[in-house]
Amino acid sequence: MHLSSVLRGRLDGVSDVWRGDHPWAAFYDFMVEHERVGRTLWQAGARSDIRLLYTAAAEIGRVPDGGRVLDVPCGGGVALRGLRPGQDVRYVAADIAPAMLERTLGAAARRGVRDLVEAVEADVERLPFADASFDLVVSFTGLHCFPRPEAAIVEMARVLRPGGVLSGSALLNDTGVLYEPLRIAGRLGGLLGPSGTRVELAHWLAAAGFPDASIRTSGALVYFRGTRA
Ligand SMILES: C[S@@+](CC[C@H](N)C(=O)[O-])C[C@H]1O[C@@H](n2cnc3c(N)ncnc32)[C@H](O)[C@@H]1O
């Protein structure tokens, strides 16, 4: 079989690999939850500062009372560090992998925010929420794991109210040839989707209703943030 058709099959099946709790998922979660380990490995593998992820997650703690937050994909719950115990928000953690949702609920309990968190098994392309039902959607280290990142952005925009914020990060394709081995290994391993370039991401965001989104590069990754028009 031709290499490109093998790769195409891998890209299309990426959500199934994550749903099945690939061993990388538990390792990845351990890495991002332990700041010292995460900082070292992210710096070594992606020349990216993991503290940008924690800083971006801190926006959750600034959501006004009564706010609604969607974290998709929540993974093992790394973004929960932004949530304050007793904060008056509804926090929905969504992921395609039941094992990741279990990890998120464990992390929520350890962080004293279990009562604020609802875990929902969902595919990012078919979120079981009404239009405009969230004030903040966070999507960290997620787009590159999806088979159709542009469709995921459209769906996240749908559930966000006008004036609400989408904040996320992703491993993109044009952040440097240095990271090509990482991207190729991730795709051959079935864990990475097609992702896109910074120009494509800006276009997807603008088309989905985020005309002024910012995109900041950190090594192999970018951090993006936009307000829904
Ligand atoms: C690299 S992890 C990132 C998780 C977390 N946001 C973080 O930064 O640690 C990618 C996550 O995407 C989830 N995922 C993959 N495909 C998905 C899909 N189609 N819909 C929802 N979640 C998906 C995986 O189960 C995994 O938890």
Bound molecules: S-adenosylmethionine
Helical residue percent band: 25-40%
Structural class: alpha/beta
The CATH class designation is Alpha Beta
Written overview of the protein:
With 229 residues, this protein is α/β, with parallel strands linked by helices. It has a single domain (3-227), classed as Vaccinia Virus protein VP39 (Rossmann fold, 3-Layer(aba) Sandwich). 38% of the residues lie in helices and 21% in strands. The chain contains 9 helices and 7 strands. Strands 3-2-1-4-5-7-6 form a 7-stranded mixed sheet, sandwiched between helices. β2 (89-95), α6 and β3 (117-121) form a beta-alpha-beta unit. α3 packs across α4. The longest helix has 13 residues, at 98-110.
Please sum up the structure shown.
The protein has 229 residues and is of the alpha/beta class.
Properties at a glance:
binds S-adenosylmethionine, 9 helices, 229 residues, single chain, 7 strands, seven-stranded mixed beta sheet, alpha/beta, Rossmann fold
